[in-house]
Design a protein that fits this description.
about 65% helix, mainly alpha
Length: about 190
């Protein structure tokens, strides 16, 4: 978001001037900022994806014409365009990938060690929001490690998905009814499927 705001402030600052009053360098900077802002706004989902279908990591996917960028690009090119000029964004993406791999491959017996390594990596990152996330990981360390416990012999990890689902259902019932004045009626409504 801060990267996107950086380009937006450049567009706002230089966009107020008439294009004839801008120098050649300012015109190039404005056009570049518009393109970067467009890619970050429209294709930010590439930074959030876990790349299960290799959209980002495969450069051989068919390229399509993009009129804003005035060229043929695929998701690999767009991702590269997003992170090539901003090392902070590249570091943030790498840390996100590290957390994803932690949840995908880690087991209960080595979760504590892996989580501590991730916290160290996040703390050493110069991006302020990443160090804040390291604090969050530190606060919830025991709960995160406990989430890797295997229930019985099913192979499934322990989680609170069912409880969270029930709480959401109760909140939806409460919200859609605009409040209940009778407690027993509300309780009965929550119990019925």
């Amino acid at each position: 978001m801060s990267v996107q705001n950086k380009y937006y402030s450049t567009i706002k600052k230089l966009g107020k001037k008439d294009r004839c009053d801008l120098s050649r360098e300012e015109l190039i900077l404005l056009d570049d900022a518009k393109k970067h802002y467009y890619v970050l706004k429209k294709f930010h989902c590439l930074l959030l994806s876990n790349d299960g279908d290799n959209k980002v990591s495969d450069p051989n996917i068919e390229k399509k014409f993009n009129r804003v960028l005035n060229g043929y690009n695929n998701y690999y090119d767009l991702y590269d365009y997003m992170v090539k000029d901003d090392p902070e964004l590249d570091m943030a993406y790498d840390l996100k990938y590290e957390v994803t791999e932690f949840y995908r491959k880690c087991r209960y017996d080595n979760a504590k060690q892996c989580l501590e390594e991730i916290i160290i990596d996040f703390r050493s990152c110069p991006v302020e929001s990443m160090s804040k996330f390291a604090n969050t990981l530190s606060v919830w360390k025991n709960e995160i490690i406990a989430s890797f416990m295997i229930i019985d012999n099913t192979g499934k990890k322990m989680n609170t998905a069912i409880v969270e689902n029930r709480n959401k259902t109760i909140k939806l019932i409460k919200h859609s009814s605009n409040g209940f004045l009778n407690w027993s009626r509300f309780r009965n409504k929550c119990y019925t499927p």
